[in-house]
Design goal:
The structure is a single chain. The protein has helices at 2-27, 35-40, 53-73, 76-79, 83-86, 98-102, 117-125, 159-164, 178-181, 218-228, 245-253, 273-287, 315-334, 336-368, 375-384, 391-398, 409-418, 438-458, 465-471; strands spanning 106-110, 145-150, 155-158, 184-189, 198-201, 231-236, 261-265, 298-301, 431-432, 436-437. With 484 residues, it is α/β, with parallel strands linked by helices. An 8-stranded mixed β-sheet has the order 3-4-2-5-1-6-7-8, sandwiched between helices. Helix 3 (53-73) runs parallel beside helix 14, helix 3 runs antiparallel to helix 18 (438-458) and helix 14 packs across helix 15 (375-384). 30% of the residues are buried. Residues 14-26, 81-90 and 464-484 have low confidence and may be disordered.
């Protein structure tokens, strides 16, 4: 009898152990194959990265010798303090550092809380179940701006260290205060994809939270990252499609950057087909008033995490959508130098227009001043109604400037409120015997040097770095006021 009881106990134990193993196996979801991700992003290729050091050195030389002098002389950074009203869209910092010029493409993740932004980064980098993975959860988990970049080993960098390092492109973030720097963190990860791109994870948008409760200017910080991002992923999930004040402000800040925006409807395999169609329509209905452009941004519908798609869902569709997004990301990485040169040229055009406008304001002021005039009243009249003195129209007529490139007139009221008009010199006086004229140099950079540098990349040529060092990138200084 005792032997029979012992046998029954053994059998029961074996059954319980087998059941526990089956439950444990069932509780661990199957992971998807990553071969499409690695092939699309070219993570398995052993070929060395393109040598762009010569191009970057030439680009730095052009910026510092031809663009920065005019930018500094006419205090373009002061105009940029009113960047939303002056120039919507991407821009350099107040004074571009070499770190900003040579930085890798930046991919920015925005969206409501717990929609899968951190999980998507973990999936793209294959960090799940590793010591490197970003923390995720159903509750708001990311309270910091997290910069994921390449490094020889896993390393966490505090925000105050990132801002103090001039070699990085994050030193301008000090202007947002110490409270923000405590919410900024950098993570270096030895991953091949991060050799070519940098990811930025942001705190989720919580509509019932006032901005002042964060302790730092959240919208201003977002604007800083938006202005420097090469690709912006705005992530939603089927449960968070409502648009509140904070999300509405975010899309207002994205105005002018529509070509970089990609909308992602994440966790799509959690819905049946009919429900997914309704959610897709509801997403467009919510975003339509916020994106006032003819062609809407591209929308990707999939589930960006490592686990298998739920059964009875459109697996093939989700996989194709994911591959399309990866190709989009890879295209930004492949075109990083072309985009950077084009961006620097766009920045140079804006600096030139700003200098021409300040010069015109100053010339008008000098023309209207008499011995008995009150300088303050004269200039106030000019600033309040620049059209009365044909300030902007004269720029359009004489300098080959498009009216669509002109900044907002209101921005100059604030600009001259900080910078007295008498503190500037006319463009005709910004010349030297050895250095040439500021205006001629920036025009040469816009019309010749930067297009030639861009063309050398397209033809696979390497710029001549030595001649750049010797001659100043092929420039022979000229002075139109020097007598022959």
């Amino acid at each position: 009898m005792k032997g029979l009881n012992l046998l029954c106990c053994c059998v029961a134990s074996l059954l319980l152990l087998s059941t526990a193993e089956e439950v444990e196996d069932a509780s661990e979801p199957t992971k998807r194959d990553r071969s499409h991700l690695e092939s699309t992003l070219k993570l398995n290729e052993d070929k060395p990265a393109d040598d762009v050091s010569g191009v970057l050195q030439r680009l730095r030389k052009i910026y510092h010798s031809s663009i920065k002098p005019l930018e500094h002389s006419y205090r373009y950074n002061e105009l940029r303090q009113h960047e939303i009203t002056a120039y919507p869209g991407r821009t350099l910092g107040s004074s571009a550092t070499d770190g900003e010029i040579t930085s890798k493409p930046m991919v920015l993740f925005l969206g409501p809380w717990s929609v899968g932004k951190s999980s998507m980064i973990n999936y793209l980098l294959g960090l799940d179940d590793t010591p490197y993975q970003l923390y995720t959860g159903a509750e708001p988990t990311t309270s910091e701006f997290t910069v994921i970049m390449h490094g020889p080993k896993l390393k966490t960098i505090e925000g105050i260290v990132m801002a103090a390092d001039s070699a990085r492109s994050f030193s301008p973030l000090e202007k947002f205060g110490q409270n923000f720097l405590e919410k900024l963190i950098g993570i270096e990860v030895p991953h091949k994809l991060l050799e070519r791109v940098t990811f930025v994870d942001t705190p989720g948008i919580i509509e019932n939270r006032k901005q002042q409760e964060r302790g730092y200017p959240f919208n201003d910080v977002c604007q800083w990252f938006i202005d420097r991002a090469d690709l912006i992923f705005v992530v939603f999930d089927p449960t968070k499609l409502d648009v509140g004040l904070e999300l509405e402000m975010l899309f207002r800040q994205l105005k002018g950057r529509e070509s970089q925006i990609r909308i992602i409807l994440n966790k799509a395999d959690s819905l049946a087909t009919q429900e997914l169609m309704r959610v897709y329509g509801a997403l467009f209905w919510s975003l339509a008033p916020l994106i006032n452009v003819t062609e809407p941004p591209r929308v990707y519908v999939s589930s960006f995490w490592p686990h298998e798609y739920h059964p009875d869902t459109h697996k093939d569709l989700f996989l194709k959508e994911e591959i399309s997004l990866l190709e989009d990301l890879n295209q930004v990485i492949e075109n990083r130098m072309e985009n950077k040169i084009a961006f620097i040229r766009q920045h140079a055009i804006r600096v030139r227009i700003h200098a021409l406008l300040v010069d015109r304001y100053l010339q008008t002021y000098k023309d209207k001043m008499t011995f008995f005039s009150d300088g303050e009243l004269v200039f106030r009249d000019i600033v309040e109604d620049p059209d009365k003195f044909f300030i902007f129209k004269s720029i359009l007529a004489k300098t080959n400037v498009s009216k669509f490139d002109l900044p907002n007139r209101e921005a100059y009221k604030d600009f001259f409120g900080i910078n007295p008009i008498t503190s500037f010199k006319l463009l005709s006086q910004q010349c030297s015997y050895m250095g040439g004229c500021f205006l001629e140099k920036i025009e040469k950079a816009i019309t010749r040097e930067l297009p030639d540098l861009l063309g050398s990349i397209g033809l696979g040529k390497k710029p001549n770095v030595l001649s750049c060092d010797v001659t100043g990138c092929g420039e022979t200084p000229k002075n139109r006021y020097k007598k022959p």
